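Hi X.,

You mentioned you wanted examples for the new student's onboarding notes, showing what a folding record looks like when two proteins sit in one file. Here is a clean example. The first protein comes first, with its sequence line followed by its structure tokens.
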Amino acid sequence: MIRVLLADDQTLVRAAFAMLIGSDPEMEVVGEAATGLEAVALARSARADLVVMDIRMPELDGIEATRRIAADEDLAGVKVLVLTTYDTDDHILDALRAGASGFLVKDTRPAELLAAIRTVAAGDSLLSPGPTARLIARVLSAPSAPAGPGPEALGMLSERECQVLALVARGLNNTGIAESLGLSPLTAKTHVSRIMGKLGARDRAQLVIAAYESGLVVPAGGGAAGN
């Protein structure tokens, strides 16, 4: 059973999501929060497996709430899936840096929401990886984009690891990476884990950020090194 906490300041949005999630026999809604502060408190008290987190909320926004959950050792197993309006919400990059495991577009289809919850709860970090990568690329290509680790960070990685990282940034899962490089899925998973350790990344979402910030993957239609 996947225990889900809903955090959104819109009552109707929470109600709709709660009804949908409650219809799945493998999921249950264990709490609803209207503010970021409530989300952090309920994540602790309700022992949720996953928080569906809106970014724009009163008292404490979803980014800071995500950061507090990710930084709490007692909540190490709690995943955060942020909500975004996609075309207008550049805060998604901050949310991923704060420790979110991915994002959902608010007008996502019901089946996609349930699939996304299963994916993140199972430990896979990115949902709709193509849009995730494009959004990160757009934000990082803006003049005000924050400085990243730089190309020198790639010096810690082997040539094969650079190839794997580039494929992660394109949104491929371990099976897709294995097929692209002629590896077994277990070997691909091992490479991803080692890359996370070398770059200090929490999950695959942060690997995507690192790939763009280091220049391994070029925003706005550019190529990727190692492909």
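Then the second protein repeats the pattern, sequence line and then tokens:
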Amino acid sequence: MSDEKIWLSSPHMGGEELKYIHEAFEQNWIAPLGPNVNEFEKSLEDYLGNNVSVAALSSGTAAIHLGLKLLDVQAGDEVICQSMTFAASANPIQYLGAKPIFVDSEIETWNICPQALEDAIKDRIKKGVKPKAIIGVHLYGMPYQHKEIREISEKYEIPVLEDSAEALGSFYDGRACGTLGDIGILSFNGNKIITTSGGGALVAHSEEIKNKAVFLATQARDDAPHYQHSEIGHNYRLSNVSAGIGRGQMKVLNQWVEARRQVFEFYKGFLKDFEHIVLQSNPSDKFSPNRWLTALYFDDKNGYDLRENLRLKLLEKNIESRPLWKPMHLQPVFKDFPYYGSSVSENLFSKGICLPSGSNLTLEEKDRIKRVIIDIL
């Protein structure tokens, strides 16, 4: 019999989730509102700090969509987006009929490059269209260069939508990721640090913005005894049942973050002696990533072949791994949109790999992974 599958990042229940799900059923709070939603939002607000207000939504993608609407992005506007990310960071730009402008990464954090970002802004302004917003992503839980990006944002008066889908539990200079931008977003997809099965959240710096997000997420129903709508709304609210899972998961968030960091240290420990392997590492002590996924690249002219040999060998042994995100400017659906930068994100994609990083990895599973990696290297 073949070895059991080792997943890249599988859900990890803490034990109290069913308690809140049962409460929802017992109290008949099955609709997308109720005590679990309220308490889940409050627990996120308490965890994130910085006086934020949180709206629990159906997905991180929904949060980005609403975040862009709240930043007044409209059809014909331009939005700058980190190219090296998952498609959900960029797709909502097109939902609104706006135009994505993609920007390369820098090699330290693998996130949006401040120099390329400013070059893009200057050139778009020169071409007659000032970008309406900047989407920065904390790739694999590694915070982007917040100080530099914030300075550029303020200099050109362009707000930042902070895509913290992969970074709940990460911090930059003591501040929780998700609270750094003008609007932040979180994801609770099944593969994230904590999950609500599906789900996400919008993080606002005022109760007013949160309330507007909730209004738009509940079909933008006006305050009237009948159904009246003065704006286009969406069905984006998180259900009370799903929020119950989230309440249980919040109780183990710190444990799961620590477990993922220990997974990173496990890889770092036995990979340090191998030439040409570069792990995604902290640029300074200001950066405190949650290590959602442990990622590396092969700094070698044959990096692609080395990556593929490793990926296929792991696959053969029933161990899931994945190339780094394919940059958006290389995706067929976005190939005709502007791109600023060099080839950092392209090189990372072609030579990089994500390794199994779940907080529920067992010692036996780690040993299996280690043996395969050492064998192939």
